[in-house]
Amino acid sequence: MPLYLRESDVEALLSPEDxxxxxxxxFQRLASGRVENxxxxxxxxxxxxxxxxxxxxxxxxxxxxxxxxxxxxxxxFVVVLFATDRAETLAVIEADKLGQLRTxxxxxxxxxxxxxxxxxxxxxIGTGWQAxxxxxxxxxxxxxxxxxVAYSRNEERxxxxxxxxxxxxxxxxxxAAEMDVVVTITSSKDPVLRGEWLxxxxxxxxxxxNRIESRELDNAVVERAAFVxxxxxxxxxxxxxxLVEPVERGVLDWLEVHDLSEVVSxxxxxxxxxxxxxxxxxxxxxxxxxxxGSLVLERARERxxxxxx
Length: 309
Fold this sequence. Notes:
- Strands 9-8-7-10-11-14-12-13 form an eight-stranded parallel beta sheet. Strands 2-3-4-5-6-1-15 form a seven-stranded mixed beta sheet.
- The mean pLDDT is about 95.
- β8 (about 145-150), α5 (about 155-165) and β9 form a beta-alpha-beta unit.
- With about 300 residues, the protein is α/β, with parallel strands linked by helices.
- The protein is built from eleven helices and 15 strands.
- α2 (about 15-30) packs across α3 (about 95-115), α3 crosses α4 (about 130-140) and α3 (about 95-115) crosses α11 (about 285-305).
């Protein structure tokens, strides 16, 4: 019988460390060809959007989808898991917390493989719900981190974020941009990070904008990057404005863009030198949701959590 798991169940069963490990494994399997991923598509509502993304992970034995509706009342997320070897629905999982942690974990996996050796500082531009897991997952993946500088245009939210997570408030977004690892996790449609601010050796994880018309990075970030990768090149072509527009303007070529799975598996060398600037563009893919959802389901069965449907 399928298991139904609520947001509170997911929060109790899943840690940032768990999410990072699950997503790292996901990219290993993507590289081996055992995972098939389909880019997100969006359907219009009145008002709002219905978003659907799907994947099949043959090694985990799980296929499924994440779907979420965004409207005036906010957003609601659900992951549905199926067995790959039989016609069986395994679980229905409320997936706001799950998605938050898998998004932070994707950036953290990129940092684990692409940050310069000995990286000790993190800059976070944006201090909303998603920024929390970016910071926590980065700390899980990079235990040498000593300093976190955060920036938000909302001073009250910035102060609260810094107090809760032991970060320093930046007066300007440039303050956060001068760290070893820089995360952008905003809802801005216009660039919040300029390439001229980046220090030699910086890793940029751009995780906020996943619509073709939105950008968090200016062209100078892309121009300065010695290596560019993303969680899905196929998906980036249809929704990563941070890459699509630079390609259209001749700043970047798709041949220069790699999948993170190639780096995680060792097929492609990411960072070639300590002073290289490296860019990871994250959109969030269904394969990541399945990997984390599978782990949550496994834990739930072990601990007797959830409601059978």
